[in-house]
Amino acid sequence: MRRRDFIAILGSAAAAWPLTTRAQQHPLIGFLSARSPEESAHLVAAFRRGLAEHGAVEGQSVAIEYRWARGQYDRLPALAAELVHIPVGILVAVGGEPAARAATATTTTIPVVTLFSSDPVRSGLVASLSRPGRNVTGISNLSATMEPKRVGLLREVVPQAKAFGALLNPDFPIFADQLKDIEAAARTAGLELQVLRAKSDGELATAFGSARQQGIAALLVAADSFFNTRREQLAALAAQHRVPAIYSFRDYATAGGLMSYGIDLPDTYRQAGAYAGLVFKGAKPAELPVVQPTKYEFVINLKAAKALGIQFSDNLVSLADEVIE
Questions:
Q1: Alpha-carbon span 204 to 245, nearest angstrom
Q2: How far apart are CA 77 and CA 80, in angstroms?
Q3: Are strands 296-301 and 259-263 parallel, antiparallel or unpaired?
Q4: What is the helix (H) or strand (E) element at residue 197, kind and residue range?
């Protein structure tokens, strides 16, 4: 055998070796995310901390196979099928409703731990919060149900506004529910609503350009995994077009966004890891209650506010959990 051929064979064998060996040495967890690995490192670290709370340490007692949709929801069913085909012993689905739905639609036997961004009972993913039933449980982060609170905060920041805009992704599975909630919040606040839609990078730029042309005084960026993977781009577009905006997670404010209100996202990933650890030790998902969020964060970015000519009231500053100078 020629040396070149031997090296090629050795290389292909080495490429196949890690997954096979890990599967033989340790129980395998599948990690399915609608987000991207580059911007989720802190969330994966939190997930691993939760696993470790129950003795499940990656590389020591468990192995993890990762699959990332990078905000492209149509990829999730195939990625979930890959993990089920391996097969994994536990399937963890994070990054929003699309991942949860893809995981639960792909297997009815493998335990699934997921993050629900809407009411999982209303969406039919679990029978009840106290006893989920089937093979599914997880953490209800409710990020997509807090839009009315964000509308109220926008109104406090831009009190002179008679209308505001809402940026939503029409491909998000619960788009219709989000829009309904935002419309109701607008009516309650006595504000007109202008809906902007974007499901691609090009449409994001177009939406912000349209917001400026229409004279939208403030913008709510709805909770959505596609948006999460592009938070720096969104913050930059808001600054470029001078549109005050509120977002769903702290990461937007730290990326230069004006303000955010939502759950403590790393903590929900830690909780997902802890639940996966419990299942690893033998707990049944059907008997693990869906965890409700207890930690919320209101974050404001004073540097972004100054650039936009926004003055936060002393009351809002005192209510903020974090103020970025």
A1: 14
A2: 5
A3: antiparallel
A4: strand 192-197
Domains of the chain and any CATH numbers: 3-143+264-295 (3.40.50.2300), 145-262+297-324 (3.40.50.2300)
Q: What is the torsion angle, in degrees rounded to the nearest 10, for the CA atoms of residue 309, residue 314, residue 319 and residue 323?
A: 50
Residue whose tokens read 């998902």: 285
The CA distance from 189 to 144, in Å, is 19
Closest to 257 in 3D by CA, of 298, 318, 293: 298
**63 bridge partner residues:** 28
| Per-residue DSSP letter, 325 | -
Name which of 254, 253, 265 is nearest 94 in CA terms: 265
Q: Counting every residue, how long is the chain?
A: 325
Distance between CA atoms of 19 and 85, rounded to whole angstroms?
13
**Cβ atoms of 265 and 139 closer than 8 Å:** no
Per-residue pLDDT of the chain (325 residues; tens, 9 = 90+): 443 343 333 333 333 333 433 444 678 999 999 999 999 999 999 999 999 999 999 999 999 999 999 999 999 999 999 999 999 999 999 998 899 999 999 999 999 999 988 788 888 888 899 999 889 999 987 665 688 889 989 999 998 888 899 999 999 888 998 899 899 989 988 899 999 999 999 999 999 999 988 889 999 999 898 999 999 999 999 999 999 999 999 999 999 999 999 999 999 999 999 999 999 999 999 999 999 887 889 999 999 999 999 999 999 999 999 999 8
- The single-letter DSSP state of residue 143 is G
DSSP string of 53-74, one letter each residue: TTT--BTTTBEEEEEE-TT-GG
- Residue 138: which of 44, 271, 37, 258 has the closest Cα? 271
Residue 5 CB-density burial (10 A; 0-12 exposed, 13-18 middle, 19+ buried) = exposed
